[in-house]
Structure prediction request, 568 residues.
Amino acid sequence: MTDTVSTTPLKDTKFGQKAAGPVGWLDDRLGLGPLVKKNIRKVFPDHWSFLLGEIALWSFVVLLLTGTFLAIWYQPSMNEITYNGSYEPMRGLEMSQAYASTLDISFDIRGGLLMRQIHHWSAALFVAAMMAHMLRVFFTGAYRKPRELNWLIGVGLFSLALIEGFAGYSLPDDLLSGTGLRFVDGLIRSIPIVGSYLEYFVFGGEFPGDLIIARLYMAHIFLIPGLLLGLIAAHMLLLVYHKHTQWPGPGRTEKNVVGYPMLPVYAAKAGGFFFIVFGFTALMAAFIQINPIWTYGPYNPSEVTAGSQPDWYMGWVEGAVRIMPNWEFTIGPETFSLNVFIPAVLLMGLLFTVLAIWPFAERWVTRDNAEHHLLQRPRNAPTRTALGVAGMTFYGVCWIAGGNDIIALKFNLDIFVITWLCRIGVFVGPVIAFIVTRRICISLQRKDNETLLHGYETGIIVRSPDGAYAEAHAPLPADQAFTLSDRKRPQVLEAPETEDEHGVRNPASRKERLRAWFSRKFYEHDLDKPTVEEVEEAAHHHSDDPYPANELPEDFSGVSETGVPKSH
Prediction:
């Protein structure tokens, strides 16, 4: 006997009947019905790496919420006052209204310190999640056609996030943030010819002036958040329009998406994940102190905080400046401070330029004009993965150099030795990382090919009639074999002839030969996947195995080193 459960369509319920009027009114004027109907069942794949972008998104939402709370009491003024607040050690000190209001938020506003710390931790998490998300996109090739524009939007979001973080970090007007402002003032002044003019324009006169906090405040709460919101909206719209990328696997092609629909599954998961991010950030803010401005004191241009460090995402710039030799020269009345301009201004510009042009440069080298909706495993793009790890190594060495004084103090080391090690490491480290990473990727490719042809190790030792012992192998299940082999064969471009059969020089030969050289360097070490003939020969070999695979249990996937059965 079966029970039949009847359901009432939403439009026939009391709620549906009441909502029909306003919804119909909006649809008549905005035409949202077809758009919503088309995208309400939009499918999103399910993989943990896709959560990195969501962490960045929800961290930004937390920043907006907590920033609104803080903006109610913060006063963006550099006017000097005498502090008479509740924090006893600061009473009677001269300070700016900005610093005094930040102290009031921390000690006199209920929940103010918690909100300050949530805001600061969310900013750090926002940049970290965005950086991890961009690395995921880079290493998996998710920026390829048709997503180049979305990659450029991501680069813009990342650069704006760094500026927004610096602006917010400077608003308390304490001694630590003032030291950071002095550092940026030096970067601006190092720009040849126009540096001093730009400084007067930004600060409204000589550093520090009395306008920079108000200007940073307006940029921090209006200009940059507005740009971020616009770019995030464009990023999400392009994500929906292009459909989501997905990992290769059975049933997954360049023309479909395997996953869960937006409503109700994905929306519920995303909403729950927002509360997880908010809760985790609140826990960090409650139990891990960050930016205790009351220990630094108000900013004074004649003082510098001992052991001052910027937020982590700007530490690599300071490190690059610290390890740069003292290259400086004067031509007429102009002083060229290359020791600051090259590692800070020029290096940051070079970073974002390389990030912006990379999808187009790779497309030019590979001449790959096809649309890609399936991701690449990093091991299947060894050169790109190696270049990414080399860049991360360069960043890491600069980041370490940014704390050379702290490292020397805590570990009782010579700061000059650390500086010289970083100077050498910033050139040698990326090269070593590139070579090692590419060899690891190629070894993993070789392992995948071996597994496809010879199967996985079962852990079962068999003895042949002549007394020899060998480990039995079993072929991979069809879905796993398909996943490992679902990748395109590398196509190395051939260099064209410089002249045709009539001796006429090809005007494009130099460019095409350069393209072929880059293509060869990009693909020359890649291992191709096994051919159909090799797979068939391997299958025939498995049929002659002394321990046939068909005698193994269906759920058997081999054993671990300790003899425990495992699954793929």
User: Anything to note?
Assistant: Residues 46-309 form a domain with the Cytochrome Bc1 Complex; Chain C fold (CATH 1.20.810.10). Residues 223 and 256 are 39 Å apart (CA to CA). Residues 1-5 have pLDDT under 50 and may be disordered. The first strand starts at residue 43 and ends at 44.
